Amino acid sequence: MNEHILRLARENAPCFIYSRDVLARQAGLLRDTFPGFDFLFSVKANPFPPVMRALAALGIGADAASAREVLLAEECGMSAADIYFSAAGKSDSALREAWDHGHLIADSIGEAVRIGRIAATKAGVAGREMDAAARNVINAAGFEGLFGHSYGHSLGLLIHEGPYANTRNDKPMPAGAVVSAEPGIYIPDEFGVRIEDVTVITETGCEILTKSPKNLIIL
Predict the structure, then answer these.
(1) Contact present, 117 and 134 (Cβ < 8 Å)
(2) 165 beta partners
(3) What SS3 class is residue 28?
(4) pTM of the model
(5) Measuring CA to CA, which residue among 178, 181, 168 is closest to residue 120?
(6) Rounded Cα distance, 91 and 86, in Å
(7) Bond prior to 49 in cis (omega within 30° of 0)
């Protein structure tokens, strides 16, 4: 064994020693114990290319905590189908950076709507397609028919003006338009929730101008 590694171990320094055989046995044990499950390893805890390549060869996916980790996993030979990246707490720019390199995981309906918005909101996309991206996520979550208004409208000299991101607008949205993003769910006789942002449409996506948190705040 490398003398440098032995010295670190003797000094009680943090030291990880990996064996391909051990990794293979552990992967086999997991699959035998939990048949039908997919398994992920944390890139943050195992950021070593030789280890990541060995895990990729065993068919174990990557749980990435940042766009940089997503790209690292890809560089180590992992396919986009095996890289998972949680949208929770990540900026829109980080999600766009990781977009084509792995699966984006939504931890809530709000995050799912945000992912849908990022996918659809950019110059050249029709206003009704932007509306549909948010509406489809809400419908798929079991709240079909409970989003009773349009996804968004432009803001300029007036609070409400065109171009609109609604079901009727089949015209492409222009770059530079300032558009609200306000998906909502309203359950009759119970309560309703609307999450609203203001965005600027660009050629490649949108820039969010509002910086308010989206977590529940109890006063």
Answers:
(1) yes
(2) 152
(3) helix
(4) 0.55
(5) 181
(6) 11
(7) no
- The pLDDT value given to residue 43: 86
Burial (CB < 10 A; 0-12, 13-18, 19+), residue 25, is exposed
pLDDT digits (tens, 9 = 90+) for 207-217: 888 887 777 77
User: Bridge-partner residues for 129, per DSSP?
Assistant: none
CA angle (21 as vertex; 2, 51 as ends), nearest 5: 65
Contacts 24+ apart (CB under 8 A), 112-115: 112/137, 112/141, 113/137, 113/138, 113/183, 113/195, 114/87, 115/87
Q: What is the dihedral of CA 125, 126, 130, 135, to 10 degrees?
A: -140
Contact by Cβ (8 Å): 185, 112 = no
Per-residue burial over 156-177, b = 16 or more CB atoms within 10 Å of its CB, e = otherwise: eeeeeeebbbbeebeeebeeeb
